[in-house]
Amino acid sequence: MHQHAQALAAGTQPGRELPKALGITTGGARRFWKTWSSAPQTAAWTETDWSELELTTKLVDGLYLGDLKLAGEIRQRVAKWGATVEDRARLRMTFEKTHEEEPEAPSAPAPEVDMDEELYKLLNGS
After folding, report:
1. How confident is the model at residue 83 (pLDDT cuts 50, 70, 90)?
2. I need a labelling partner for 47 at 20 to 30 A (CA). Which of 27, 78, 107, 126 fits?
3. What is the pLDDT of residue 118?
């Protein structure tokens, strides 16, 4: 099967609200939903894709609650959506710059960002 490159509009999408019925309890899973629901990839998503995001968000909630065995399954799922540069290269997925985007101006060094404390504690058994 020949796979064509897929160009996506750069920037975030409006996203969707996290369904309350999912019963998500962790901040990490809520951030995961917010990030993915507004990612450029979602512009072309169908209801089956959104259903996969719901299921994966439940797995992420379980991961943040301490079930580290879920990490591999989560990684396999997000790879199919183009989570990393390597995933997007394999999927032949690129982001197009819009005419409205300004060239990046030199900026001050970014302030040091703390590691996600919730995940840090989870991975270190704290």
Report:
1. confident
2. 27
3. 65
- How far apart CA 40 and CA 81 sit, in angstroms, is 10
Residue with tokens 């629901």, as numbered in its chain: 37
Spatial CB neighbours of 65, under 8 Å, sequence gap ≥ 6: 25, 26
Query: For the residues of 12-75, what is the DSSP string, one character each?
Result: -----PPPGGG----HHHHHHHHHHHTSGGGGG--HHHHHHHHHHHHHHHHHHTT-GGGHHHHH
Please give the pLDDT value at position 8: 52
pLDDT (average), residues 9-22: 80
CA distance 69 to 95: 32
Side-chain half-sphere of 110: how many Cα atoms within 13 Å?
A: 3
Read off the pTM. Answer: 0.68
CA diameter of the chain: 48
Q: Which residues contact 44 (CB under 8 A, 6 or more apart)?
A: 8
pLDDT above 60 for 44: yes
